[in-house]
Design a protein that fits this description.
314 residues, nine-stranded mixed beta sheet, single chain, 9 strands, 32% helix
């Protein structure tokens, strides 16, 4: 997540869930796969994945190989989408799953997370690597597992653009660069779900929150689709305007559609934000696996409804 300068407590509020939901999908997310994926992406070998470094290049190759293995096609000529606003070569990694419905496939749902982080620390200390396990290797892992599910089941009537952004920590550069290209292609966006810092659970009566809670009905629709209190309202999210601090904002600004980030980082449950101790060993793999499992029915509904049910609030 783009830089924040606070760690403050929160007031507990939640939104009511709707009892209308999709049936549980007949698919189990592999906890081992979640663990292995996250472990490599947040490993010392990648040296904190700072945009433009050798470390993030290794991460890019890893994500390209993941797409190839799961038969997810590149959206552009290759998986690499070169940033137009960064001085040295840097790439978003972009794949696409074409929708199965001849009409709905013309609409896109974007599933995204940023795979860059802040690299090596300049302080004189034993551990200099900002591994970024929670920020945002956790989100990349979740998006990858969702992409694998749809690649396997082909249950998406709408097309899905899967994006792993570079340059988020440099000022949302990857998403800013990409939306300019998509606008020129008359990209037909329905909605974007950007996954940001979901490596540890909250001690609340809901699983996660969306940024910009009141900007659309996304939270209410997700709860309707899952039949659970999946999404709640986090007052500090609104107070600190987190909606504007991650890659969802670039898409919202360009398309004016519901584009929001989903997170479980609540300023009370994780003390290693932008810290060398943001490592794999402090991630809750069971929670991450459950998070992905709970969201799959909701995303399945989002990519399949006959009409666009997630809408901006007036």
């Amino acid at each position: 997540m783009k830089k924040l300068y606070f760690l403050l407590p929160l007031i507990l509020l939640s939104c009511k869930s709707n009892t209308s939901s999709v049936n549980d999908i007949d698919y189990k997310v592999s906890q081992t796969e979640v663990s292995d994926f996250l472990k490599y992406l947040s490993s010392d070998e990648l040296e904190g994945r700072e945009t433009g470094t050798k470390g993030i290049e290794k991460a890019a190759v890893f994500l390209e190989d993941f797409f190839k293995k799961n038969k997810i096609k590149p959206y552009f000529a290759s998986y690499r989408d070169t940033l137009t606003n960064f001085k040295s070569p840097a790439y978003n990694i972009v794949g696409v799953l074409e929708g199965t419905d001849p009409v709905l496939k013309k609409e896109f749902v974007v599933l995204s997370a940023h795979y860059d982080h802040i690299g090596l620390d300049t302080k004189q200390q034993a551990d200099k690597i900002n591994n970024g396990a929670n920020d945002d290797a956790s989100g990349v892992t979740a998006v990858a597992q969702m992409a694998k599910y749809f690649a396997k089941t082909k249950s998406n009537k709408r097309s899905i653009l899967i994006v792993f952004f570079a340059g988020e920590e440099k000022g949302l550069l990857g998403s800013k660069s990409l939306v300019e290209k998509l606008k020129k292609r008359n990209f037909n966006l329905y909605t974007q779900l950007n996954i940001e810092m979901i490596g540890v659970p909250m001690k609340r009566d809901y699983l996660a929150y969306v940024t910009g809670f009141d900007k659309s009905n996304m939270a209410q629709k997700i709860n309707e689709y899952t039949g659970k209190n999946t999404i709640g309202f986090l007052p500090k999210e609104a107070e600190y305007k987190l909606f504007y601090r991650s890659d969802n904002y670039s898409f919202f600004e360009a398309f004016g559609k519901p584009c929001q980030s989903i997170s479980t980082f609540d300023f009370e449950n994780f003390e290693f934000y932008h810290h060398v101790s943001d490592e794999f060993k402090v991630m809750d793999i069971s929670h991450m696996t459950s998070f992905i499992q709970e969201f799959l029915p909701a995303v399945t509904k989002i990519v399949s409804t006959p009409t666009e049910e997630i809408t901006m609030n007036l």
